[in-house]
Write a structure and sequence with these properties.
Elements (H helix, E strand, L loop, with lengths): L3 H5 L3 E5 L4 E2 L1 H12 L3 E6 L4 E6 L2 E7 L2 E2 L10 E4 L4 H6 L3 H12 L4 E4 L3 H6 L7 E2 L6 H6 L3 E2 L4 E4 L2 E4 L5 H14 L6
Parallel strand pairs: 1-3, 1-7, 2-4, 3-6, 7-8, 8-12, 9-10
Antiparallel strand pairs: 4-5, 11-12
Helix pairs in contact: 2-7
Length: 188
């Protein structure tokens, strides 16, 4: 049996963020992916940098490697959507970001979203009929969009991995890596 590290090596994952993402929800999964041999690419509508937040305090700036206008899901093996309140609120109103997210579901590629990250999934039309979790304030938004919302550490539904908060990152990272390693999600 091939070790998990070798299955992940050579894969690439887009990390879609706008200013105001929860910094640890980018850095922790990014580090887990890099350790597994996965290349990560920060994609954003902002250029040339994007700023994270540590709860209510401004965090670090990160270089944007690809503008979302030019991004295509075909170039990646998976997608990560960190949370933070401001970040997904900007992404869900950006037509290029919504198109980019939708492409991953159309291509049946793994998507991982944590905290407020699933907000963008609503506008991409990707939550109806799915079981998922998020930060608790998104519960009614997701239910109203047709999702089955549950209060669990991590939920996997046909290649979509979701978690609630930074406290869930260990489980989130593990399940995210499993889905990226397995590859395509089952068609719905």
């Amino acid at each position: 049996m091939m070790p998990e590290f070798l299955k992940a090596k050579g894969k690439s994952v887009a990390i879609l963020v706008a200013d105001g993402f929860e910094q640890v929800e980018l850095t922790s999964p990014q580090e887990a992916m890099r350790k597994a041999g996965i290349t990560t690419v920060i994609v954003s509508p902002q250029w040339p940098t994007v700023r994270g937040w540590n709860h209510f305090e401004k965090g670090d700036s990160f270089p944007v490697e690809l503008e979302v206008d030019d991004a295509k899901a075909v170039d990646f093996d998976g997608l990560l959507l960190p949370g933070g309140v401001v970040n997904p609120d900007q992404l869900r109103t950006n037509r290029h970001a919504v198109r980019f997210v939708r492409e991953f579901f159309t291509a049946h590629k793994p998507v991982a979203a944590i905290c407020h990250g699933p907000w963008t999934l609503i506008d991409a039309g990707a939550v109806s009929g799915r079981r998922l979790t998020s930060y608790k304030s998104l519960r009614m938004d997701l239910i109203n969009a047709g999702a089955e919302w549950v209060d669990e550490e991590v939920v996997v539904d046909q290649g979509l991995v979701t978690s609630r908060t930074p406290a869930d990152l260990k489980a989130f990272n593990r399940r995210m890596l499993e889905e990226i390693t397995e590859g395509q999600m089952a068609p719905r």
